[in-house]
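Support reply, case 0932

Customer input (verbatim):
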Amino acid sequence: MATEIITRAFVPADVPRDLVKTYEDNFSLVTRDTGRLALFAGDQKAEHLNDDFFGETKTGPIAADDADPEHLFRIAQQGVIGCFATQLGLVARYGPDYSDVPYLVKVNSKTHLITPEYGDPRSRDWVTMDQVVSLRDAGLNIVGVGYTVYPGSEFEAEQMAGAAQICYEAHRNGLLAVLWVYPRGRAVPNERDPHLVAGCAGLSAALGADFCKVNYPRTSDGSSVAEAFREAVQAAGRTRLITAGGEGTDVEGFLQTLHDQIVISGAHGSATGRNIHQKPLAEAVRMTQAIASVTYGGWPVDEALAVFRGEREYSA
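Our regenerated output:
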């Protein structure tokens, strides 16, 4: 049985009284009053460079549309999402033409070029909260900030301190805080261990996150991953757990996993990038609708798959 989904926002005490409504409005907007979040992730332009936007994947060629950064913004505007997460530079450049999109600004980032043999992952801040808020002052719909932490890295202390501060500063501005928490580094033998993923979920709660994005764990004994993932959902408490979409995979398999994460594990949605934006625009938009139908609408997999195929419509 899944954990009960609480649809209302838990307003943290670090949100000023005069900004409680702003915070609640942002929460209501991105969750569409369901308590769940379908986050469209577009931060890979920095994290994975052009590997995710041009060439081949395990499931086939990346759509030609994806070579242009504006493809991400077209999807965000035309699709059904809670918010679109990317770096400030892209939001500043394209956001004025897509001002109705809810944006979550990624504060820190790194590339994937420094592989484990060269050192532990280190993601430094690119921008300040004042700079993020300046986009809101310019008329863009800034609803929150995102921040990555790598527990197990030799740099975990500075990353956790940065995450704690960004969560606090986000709340002081009526914004939501979403943490990407991935255990990585030479001290981490198995980053997909369910117990370790649960520990990262609990860490995100201690850091003050509203939502925490983790990788879906793997089990080695043949037991149900969805059942094992419940430990992480429980460990997160009032911080709502969402899962990374991961590499491109078949649509039915993706939707089934998402359904299990929500219905069996009690997770609160997903943060999906490649499984959306590597498709041509029309197909990518239908993929957002299919994800939203499961996340916000509670639809079964067969009906969500029909949405992706264009046989049904979903609008939240």
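We compared this against your earlier run and they match. Two observations from our side: The longest strand covers residues 142-149. The chain is about 40% helix and 15% strand. Please reopen the case if you see a mismatch on your end.
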